[in-house]
Amino acid sequence: MSKKQVDLYPYSYDMTENEPHMPDFIVIPENTDQLVQLVKFCNENIIPITPYISGNNVGGLTIPEHGGIIVDFGKKMNKILHINDTMMYALLEPGVTFGQLKKHLDENYPRLRYSYPNAPPYASVIGNALLSGMTNLATKIGSMGDAINGLEVITADGNIARIGSCFYGKDEADPDSWWGRGPIPDLGGLFINWQGMTGLITKCAVQLWPNHPVKKPYLAIFFGLTDVAPFLREVGKAEIVDDIVAFSIEVAKMEIGIPEPKRYPEEPAYSAVIPMSAPTENMMKAKEEILINIVKELNQKGTNIHLINYNEFSKLFGLKARTIYELPAVILNLVEYSGLTWFGSYAPLHKFEDLIERTDALFQKHNVPPYIMMKTLKSSHHGIFRPIFRFKKFEDQERMVKLVEEITDLCINEGCIPYKTPKWMTAKMREKINPGWINLFEKIKKCMDPNGIFNPGRWNT
Amino acid sequence: MVSVKIDDDITGKEFLELSFDHCIKCSTCKYSYKDYEPICPSGEKFLFESYWASGRIRIIRGLINGDLEWTDDLKDAIFACPTCGGCMDSCQAPHADYIVDMIEALRELAVKHIGPGPNQKKLIERTLEKFNPYDEANSDNEELKKKWDLPDKAEWVYYIGCTSNYRQQVIRDATIKFLKDAGIDFTLVDEHCCTSPMVRTGQVSIAKEFMNYNIAQIENAGVSKVVTSCAGCYRTMQKDFEKFGAHMNFEVYHTVELIKQLLEEKKIKFKGEYNKTVTYHDPCHLGRHMKIYEIPREVYKKIPGLRLVEMKRNRNHAWCCGAGGGVKIGYPDWAVEISGERINEAKETGATVLSSVCPFCRTNLIDANEKYGGDFEVLDLLEIIDEVGIEKVEN
Question: Residue B277: which domain range?
Fold first, then answer.
């Protein structure tokens, strides 16, 4: 534990535009029993608790809005507790990072893989899963939140609850019992996406996936501004790819080290990296054939899309070009300055053309190179629309915040649902959300956290 | 440019400025990149974000813009770091190469406001009085010159460095013997501390004067090349002299570079064999700071009979010995604890000899070897070569 100003200070801020606030204490717990005592004490004395792992959420979510105690899970509660290779899941403490899990699987379970985001390698697996973060298996499996098997949580009264198939038994759960969430009332919904407002998660089981031996990534380039939208929809539906990560051409240029990203006339507007995997070469060939045919059909209908073997392409640009594909990795252009924020949202795929055109126009209006990433989730049931903003905090924040706000207004009006939301964004959402939802949400929050100790301020609570 | 005022007389001012609009605190500095192993002795020990590179960068901002007050509470976060450069190697952002410079600039600023780190004042006090940080009477090296029959003027100067001259004299003696046996035309000078201990701990007031003194001594010997057996001196001459505006008109070599060159040019050959398994510890000042990883390995591999095995963390991912950055004097127990982790890692290799090419690493590895029951022979490469013996090849 520390209350030294110098130790508190680095926890007071994050990479985003959200205003810093100092905590009063930092606590580094070692086990659940210590946390039960801490929660009981805080609940009795009405002391805020903000969970922290690496603070990489891009939403200001670990900034202690009302001071109190930051619980830093990242330093000691970071153990991989169990891998079940039959039912393919990992039971983890909150501090486990993507890099740590990847190393463990590669060394011990090479036939299994996890799904990795475009986050730094040392972001938290559980943090990202609880906030429904993205994965590089998104087209196949959806978000990381969709792939949670079970949770162990401490509620405000100090009760420890196990959620999911691990719920049997009075004592410690059998590590092989964390295989699913149904078919019981899904109490996971009381914690997933709640930004730490309803309890402290101390264990979480996440699904793993077969690590197919045959891998082939493609690169697609899109010459028409909105050509990427039908591609996302149609390729997603075909169930042949692991993921599609589409990004504006300016991003692609930055990724291969071009310092002044501009889009020149006649250049493609978007590109997409499309990782594919298969258990056999024959299956891969079949998938490739389907992909090529989809592109042909789309081009016959008027798009201008080119498919390129990504491995060949990346030979031109070496490691830099591979970082966006070989995850977990640092996406170099995201760490260029001191500030980073986004409007990361789940979005209706049928509105992508409109979203792309209008968002692009806003970037141009503010003279900022468009930085937009898109994905399609779960066979294109819906998509991810994610304008990203890199900026120098001490020089450029005001200008960038204006742009983010305008894009937020536009996208919320189009029905996009942002995730990992800072409170200024949830304030905008609340204006649009139906009162019945707000009423139920407030009741649940009050019930779960009567004294308002869990990450107060989130969602404007 | 930042809008706040930074003291103009801070040598590292540009690095303090750099901290303002770089670093998103992504945690990549905490572990070896793509290898996912712990790389930061300071963070691993003290855990709070303030002890990792990103935290220190934020502390710079806080101190300069007034969010943080100058108090003694700051000292551990600022000085409990061996500046091993693990963060610098792991970070993928554009400021990566300057992280150690940022930390050293923060220390310089801290020395001005709250004084040096624990016990570190002795470094500068002793050096001012006796020209070395070990509180030993200054050796002008005239006796050594006589003993080894060295000339006043030569092509090379062997810059011994304080640790080899006052503590790890086996390295000094083995190096002199090697240079003699190799037929190198060299001499010694009345050298003063290279200032590495001061630069690393933010006590830079004497740096330029000492650097210029050493340059003058070396140049007066009429040499065109300097060789040193100390990774710290090597780093300081190669990188810091220029940073402090001390200009030298000679080339600087680490002994491993000279040995490799002599072997490649077939000017020397080994006389005997060394039938032992050796693991090599990369000194931070030669490895991450100067990117010299393969040259020492090439030399070890050329020694007949020697079997070189690698520790799990090696080259740019090597775990620090814990002695540098003022930690050995400021936090002596922790310094040995850091080295203890290296000893344990060396045990996994099956080696019987733990070797390096830095006298300061040797000091700390020996301390940890004793404390943690390493049972290794801890030897500098030059000691191994001394045991094997070399002879000059007449072409």
Answer: 271-392
